[in-house]
Design brief:
The chain is of the alpha/beta class. It has two domains: 125 residues, Rossmann fold, CATH 3.40.50.2300; 128 residues, Orthogonal Bundle (Arc Repressor Mutant, subunit A). It is 58% helix and 11% strand. The protein has a five-stranded parallel beta sheet, with helices on both faces.
Length: 264
Amino acid sequence: MDRKIRTFVIEDDKMCCQAIKDFAATTDDIEIVAVAHDGVKAVELIPIIKPDVIVIDLALPNLDGFGVLQHISTLGLEITPVSILTTANSRASVSQMAFQLGVEYIMLKPYKVEDLMQRIRSVCKIALMQKNSQDVKQATTEYVLNKSLNYRIITVLNQFGVPSNRMGYQFLIDALNLVLESDDDSVGLITKRIYPPIARKYGTTESNVERAIRHVIERAWHNTDIDILSRLYGNSVNPEKGRPTNGEFICNVARKLRLEEMLG
């Protein structure tokens, strides 16, 4: 990015806001363009300042973080800012709601400000890859046409309902490519040999890769009809057990792709 990442901090803790502003001022690539301490004010400012990234706390006065995120979709913005949600609440229901509202990352409090800066860079980098595109599929059309494997991978991910406008979608494409190239679809392969090269490719961390993939799998699992999942994923789908792990999902999809190739 030729300019600094325009970041809007929405947080009622003024000391926390100041710490974020002070740290960002020491960087060359992140600018805090505005701060709001309540949700109603945040909704008013978003269309005016047009931030690249929103760092928003869940517990806000007047209108909470979820309320702000719901309003964003009604603002008619040409480009929707990328959202990072901060919260001390680690319940699965909170995560599920956040993903449904388009949150890219959830940072559990307390967190290190330097880690927040890295998250901002990471989400903005992927957003730039998707610029001038409604989703990743459109942005990679020419590449897909020349790469039959990627076409097959994307087709399967779309069948599963994996959201294509999220960071984890591209990470899943890369992960499946690596698994299929290795001829080893064991679950243990994922953390040892898949996450590191993907993290290096996108200038992020292995934990960020794991988290982004987990987010899109969880969203697909919650939003896709169970009959469709059973048909695509097999008899291992169990609504009571919940979504599979990253490794289970990637390895099962890789086996499905290998079987399809064998059957022609």
